[in-house]
């Protein structure tokens, strides 16, 4: 099976373009608005709440771009865990009442952020299109085909992605698990608890 | 041919109508955002984010039906659960400071 065949077999049905752009455009407006409000809101609790709304919009956007796994992570981590952790931090510290609702914009900082945005935007032209047979992953057909053909014989894991995560780069995953474990311990220390309950 | 591909009127399919409705709900989300930003009280913001979450669940369900992607419903379910959790956490925070969990 050649790379082009694999791409064709795995391609998703292309949605109707006109409606797609309408949803995309309104989601972009929503996400950008929430991001700006989160950055500029003077009241921390308001910023936390609007940040929750931001992650709702991001998850909808990820889902729309057919990345449901990323959307689930965004939903669970950003909307759920992060909001709770930020609220816990607020509860442990103080919240000052402000008279003005929004911070004034720091122009040099906004300019630097704008430059970074433009710089990142310029790199997007180099990203291969979805299903492009000339993309780096497909131009090295020997490597990708080796993983597809030999994964089960080498590791005994049926899912190739899972095999890469748990076997081929097992130590890397182990390091990630250590980081997550350390973060869990740190949360328990901050909460002054001994178990998650 | 699945149900969403059936033509309703003037060549537009059920899928088209679902996508258009989803776009309408996204536009409504911007309106809900106004309440979340403006406040004035924290209860307004909590309610606004709660409605936003329910709105997101509806949008995801519509997209899942229109694009024939049943897995979108899983994400919608996660959101329905987390939305409730967020509303309870923020409400508890505003009522009894310090008690989030």
TrEMBL record, chain A:
Residue stretches making up the MrpA C-terminal/MbhD domain: 29-94
Record-linked InterPro entries: CPA3_Na-H_Antiporter_A, MrpA_C/MbhD, MrpA_C/MbhE
Keywords, sorted A to Z: Cell membrane, Membrane, Transmembrane, Transmembrane helix, Transport
Chain segments annotated as transmembrane: 16-37, 44-65, 71-88, 100-122, 174-191
Domain MrpA C-terminal/MbhE: 142-193
Chief localisation class: membrane
GO-annotated cellular components: plasma membrane
Pfam short name (any one): MbhE
Localization (cell): Cell membrane
Membrane-related topology note: Multi-pass membrane protein
Name of protein: Multicomponent Na+:H+ antiporter subunit B
From TrEMBL, chain B:
Lipid bilayer topology: Multi-pass membrane protein
Bilayer-spanning residue ranges: 12-34, 46-66, 72-95
Protein location: Cell membrane
Record keyword Transmembrane helix present: yes
Pfam families, A to Z: MrpF_PhaF
Alphabetically ordered keywords of this record: Cell membrane, Membrane, Transmembrane, Transmembrane helix, Transport
GO-annotated cellular components: plasma membrane
Gene Ontology MF terms: sodium:proton antiporter activity
PANTHER family the record matches: NA(+)/H(+) ANTIPORTER SUBUNIT F1, NA(+)_H(+) ANTIPORTER SUBUNIT F
Annotated protein name in UniProt: Multicomponent Na+:H+ antiporter subunit F
């Amino acid at each position: 099976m050649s790379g082009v065949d694999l791409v064709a077999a795995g391609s998703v049905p292309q949605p109707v373009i006109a409606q797609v752009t309408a949803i995309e455009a309104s989601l972009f407006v929503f996400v950008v608005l929430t991001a700006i409000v989160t950055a500029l809101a003077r009241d921390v609790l308001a910023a936390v709440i609007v940040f929750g709304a931001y992650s709702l919009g991001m998850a909808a956007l990820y889902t729309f771009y057919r990345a449901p796994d990323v959307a689930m992570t965004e939903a669970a981590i950003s909307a759920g865990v992060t909001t709770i952790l930020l609220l816990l931090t607020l509860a442990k510290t103080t919240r000052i009442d402000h008279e003005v609702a929004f911070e004034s914009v720091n122009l040099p900082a906004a300019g630097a952020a704008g430059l970074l945005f433009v710089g990142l935007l310029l790199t997007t032209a180099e990203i291969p299109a979805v299903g492009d047979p000339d993309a780096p992953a497909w131009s090295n057909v020997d490597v990708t085909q080796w993983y597809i053909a030999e994964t089960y014989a080498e590791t005994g894991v049926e899912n190739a992605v899972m095999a890469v995560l748990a076997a081929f780069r097992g130590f890397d995953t182990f390091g990630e698990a250590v980081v997550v474990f350390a973060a869990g311990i740190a949360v328990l220390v901050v909460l002054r608890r001994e178990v998650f309950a | 041919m699945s149900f969403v591909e059936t033509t309703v009127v003037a060549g537009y399919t059920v899928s088209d109508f679902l996508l258009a409705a989803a776009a309408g709900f996204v536009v409504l989300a911007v309106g809900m955002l106004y309440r979340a930003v403006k406040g004035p009280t924290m209860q307004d913001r909590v309610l606004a984010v709660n409605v936003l979450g329910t709105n997101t669940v509806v949008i995801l369900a519509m997209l899942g039906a229109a694009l024939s992607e049943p897995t979108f419903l899983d994400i919608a379910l996660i959101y329905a659960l987390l939305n409730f959790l967020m509303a309870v956490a923020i409400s508890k925070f505003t009522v009894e400071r310090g008690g989030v969990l």
